[in-house]
Structures are given as C-alpha cells and as structure tokens.
Amino acid sequence: MNIKFERATVKDADKIINIRNQCFHSDYIKYGECPGYNISKENMERYIKNNLSYKIICDNKIVGNMSVRDNNDTTYYLCCLCIIPDYENKGIGQKSLKFLENQFPNATKWTLETPADKKKKSLLLQKSRLHHHKRIHGWLRQSSPIRKEN
Fold first, then answer.
1. Which of 14, 23, 34, 121 has the largest CB neighbor count within 10 A?
2. Are 56 and 64 in contact (CB under 8 A)?
3. Rg, Å, the chain Cα set
4. According to the model, what pLDDT value does residue 11 have?
C-alpha cells in the first residue's frame, strides 16, 4: 500500500466533497448535523483556498482528506481528518498524523473537535500527540501542547 499526501486545489473540490460525504454520512444521520458533510462546491473551494487542505492518496486513489488551519502563532486546528470507510483500519490515519507532525515541526499545540463517542478516532489520537480532551455538548475538544524532546 503506497500512501502519499498532496495539497488539494480547487480542482479537487468535487472529489473532496464526495470523500467527506462518504466519511461523514453516518455522523450526519446519527447526530443530525456534521460540519464536514454535504458542503457546497463554492464553500469547499473557499475552504481549500483559505486552509491547508491535503488529499490522502493510496495506490493513486484519493481515499481521504486532511485540512489544517494555521492560527499564525505556532498553534494549529485540525479541521478535518477523514478516510473513506473501505480504507479505515489500515494505518492510514496514523500515517496521516505523522505526516502532519513532519509538515509542522514547530507546532506548539494542536486542537480539534470530534464526536465524543468515536472510539476509533479517540484511539488513533491517543497514539499521536493529540490526546488531551474535554467534552463539549457530546463532542470532544482535543488539545495537546507539544513537548519538544531535548
């Protein structure tokens, strides 16, 4: 399995919308809302232009998306990390988080939000440096200061 990451462009908007809809449909059904689901093409294009959006590619097929907001102060917000269901549980999420750690070596803190009952995502995040959390209306706000090793 060959995994690589490429910056998304506005030309990728339709593909990323499709991927996010596959990833987040069940969340939308379960919770009645999901900010990553059913995004309009116009909003996705704007999103790609204004954030650091990456395609997750496995064997030359786009299988996921990651988006990061740079807060311009060495802190970052992980807006989205999603992998289509057929490619889950193959280590792609771990490789994706490692990629982000390498892309942003000067990060002092990462923040994200995820549904509180997402056990797989919680386990994935515990394996990374994104492991501190607090419950907010059924969602977990994850925040992790990065400790540099000497």
1. 23
2. yes
3. 15
4. 97
